[in-house]
Amino acid sequence: MPSTIGDKTYSKSIELPETEVFRNLKNAKRFAMDIGGSLTKIAYYSTVPYRKVLYNKDQKAVDSEGQEVNPKYEVSQGDRLHFVKFETKYIETCLDFLQDNLVASADVMKEKKIKVTGGGAYKYADLLQEKLGLTVDKEEEMTCLIEGCNFLLKNIHDEVFIYQRHGNPEYRFPNVDPCIFPYLLVNIGSGVSIMKVEAEDRYERIGGTATGGGTFWGLGKLLTKAKGFDELLALAERGDHRKIDMLVKDIYGGDCTSLGLPGDLIASSFGKAAQAAPESIQEADIARSLLFAISNDIGQIASLYAMMHGLKKVYFGGYFLRNHPLSMHTVSFAINYWSRGQVQGLFLRHEGYLGAIGAFLKGAEECDADKYSWSENYAGSSGLQSPLPGHRLPSLPVAVSVDQLEMDRIDQGVLVYCPLLDQPASYVPDMVDLTEDAEARKYWLDCFEESLDKFVSQAIKSQPFSADAPARAQKFKEKYISRLQYLKQHPCAFGNLTVRSLLDTREHCLNEVDFPDPYLQQKQMENEAALLLLSDHLAELDALPWRQKHETAATNLLAGNVFDWGAKEAAALMQIPGFGFQQALAHLQKRPWFVDHVEDWLVRLEEGPHRCAAIFVDNSGMDVILGVLPFARELLNRGTKVILCANSKPALNDVTYSELVLLLEQAALISKDLACAMEEGRLWVMDSGQASPCLDLGRITRSLADAMIVNQVDLVVIEGMGRVIHTNLHAKFKCDVLKVAVIKNRWLARRFGEEEDTFPVVFQFERKMVL
Which of 337, 493, 538, 594 is disulfide-compatible with 760, CB 3.0–4.6 A? Predict the structure, then answer.
């Protein structure tokens, strides 16, 4: 059972990780490994303690004497998957480190098994039993690779990428169809295996070739002085294959137009070598020519199998690639050329972990991995082409570059696409891809860094009775700044760089150092103040004629959205003494608004009520209480059922599901209309599955998706700058949708062409598309 903590020593109940690598080993429950000739991947599952707010409607932000009240928390357990990759030559010393840092005794470990795949499953079986006391249970490699691939495709956002060596950006992250099957998995190890995957439990090896990574390394070692695989790849990067390969133009003097062959196409690999003087041939040229020869063959074979089986999705993996740019470029070029652009080569950010993930899932009954969705923990993961450098474990004689991935379980079960999206397969939440927009990237990275001190101060303020809060807040600052600096140099490291991903990373870093809800007291104070105004606010609405009432309800919905601590300009206004709802109204853009569909909205209301509305809410306080609830009450009074959809976990001052349940009960004591709707089952709150100021409708709770279908939701209302502007501005739906936001950022407003000092307003109503 979780333990309640509310005294001055509560912070000591959460132990923060001491190292960045092999984190939380003391709570590790199960292990799996993929041991290759050069790289080893360890997977383990652990429970992570975290602080969770206990919401109580009777708890106040301050006591009767005006003193802050220490919030009540409980310590709960979250599930986390850890995947760590390192060079196999360090396997024994890494196992020593694991042995020394595991809480479980050797006697306890002897009763357990470890799932192991890869060539080293046999070679290191005795060592694993000796070091960890675990019995090795060997798993078939291809099965593990496929299970790992399925898991990543279903759970990690921006897992799939297309590599464009001369593109800007080099990495492009396409949208992944909710239905991940069928696909082709081309695993390039020593040889090449080509697997056709049609379902979770339906796949087969349909072909392959003996010419693979082993061929490249074997011939490379014979032809050059390279001492390792990576050294051979680095050599190829510097070479010029045209000095050794015979090109089409070497035969025809240029393009061969009659056959459709460009002049720079390789006609014969190593074709010039026989006539070249030995002293003119450089090892780098040989390595590059060899890489191209093998990659071209793999690409051609893969494209032929894909076209033969009618498959458009072809994923490449295996140690030959290792996300090495030149390897990916040659394979991409080959498959695109031989398929005439009909098949696109796709790569995975975490392809090196496929086997370890699959092996782990084989024995993952304990954590019910298939019954939940999982999300990448940005705070604990290294990005694409960015291993964690120079980490030295106590048992290792030298610093070792380590790559790692951490994934947290979503407590709400399996997340699914919103059933009301018009085309789920083409749904992209984010409005701007910062990897492509250099100006926007610079602005937002600088903006997040400049605002960091505010969040450090707020984090410390949120735990006034914790002596180590300043030290933990400093750790948060250092980690987040380090990540921002890295993203300035490598914007594609964690997939598409967006405002949403920057916000999520900040929340992950805050949670890592035990600040789960920095705005908790602020939200409580604002909720208490807004509830005191609700009765008069509703009375003023009721006194208005029909048209003016609905216009005012719409305007108030926007005025409430000004109260957003995540927006710099809005936060500055909220710190002005006496700033309230009327002052927020004054800061709204005068009508006509930037996007002003109020007339279209009123016309639709005159046609009759909607069956059911799903409202995705934003901020606590004035926003939800004086903006959303009165707006929802007008819908209810028209005969429309209303589902209020709130975040699962805290983010900035956004209202959470648990908070909104209590707030709605309090509001029902003030409004008979709300109370009656709740009693009759026409108004209720649901958990959206979100933990961000933005909104990803590709990952909502199954219960909410089911409720939308059962209640025949025909109106979706999305509110807030994060949910409407940063995300979902261009999202299309099968039903009516109302997108409502105040643009509380001057730079962003100017990007939209608005130069006024007031906040531009978006009130965008889109009718259901009639085919």
Answer: 594
Q: pLDDT by residue (tens digit) across 341-380?
A: 999 899 999 998 999 999 999 887 656 777 899 999 998 8
Q: How many CB atoms lie within 10 A of CB 76?
A: 15
Is pTM, for the whole model, over 0.85? Answer: yes
Q: Report the amino acid identity of residue 733.
A: F
Alpha-carbon gap, residue 327 to 237, rounded angstroms: 9
Q: How many CB atoms lie within 10 A of CB 563?
A: 30
What is the C-alpha separation between 119 and 665, in angstroms, rounded?
A: 60
User: Is the distance from CB of 159 to CB of 347 less than 8 angstroms?
Assistant: no
Sole residue written with tokens 């690598």: 21
The whole-angstrom separation of Cα 438 and Cα 450 is 18
> What are the structure tokens assigned to 729, written together?
């501005």
Structure tokens at 411: 């407590």
| Close Cβ partners of 713 (under 8 Å, ≥ 6 residues apart) | 420, 611, 612, 613, 614, 643, 707, 735
Give yes or no for a contact between 82 and 388, defined as CB atoms under 8 angstroms apart: no
Residue 30, beta-bridge partner list: 45
The C-alpha atoms of residue 441 and residue 598 are separated, in whole angstroms, by 33
Percent helix, strand, coil in the chain, to 5, is: 40, 20, 35
- My answer on whether omega of the bond before 182 falls inside 30° of 0, hence cis, is yes
Query: Which pLDDT value is given to residue 14?
Result: 47
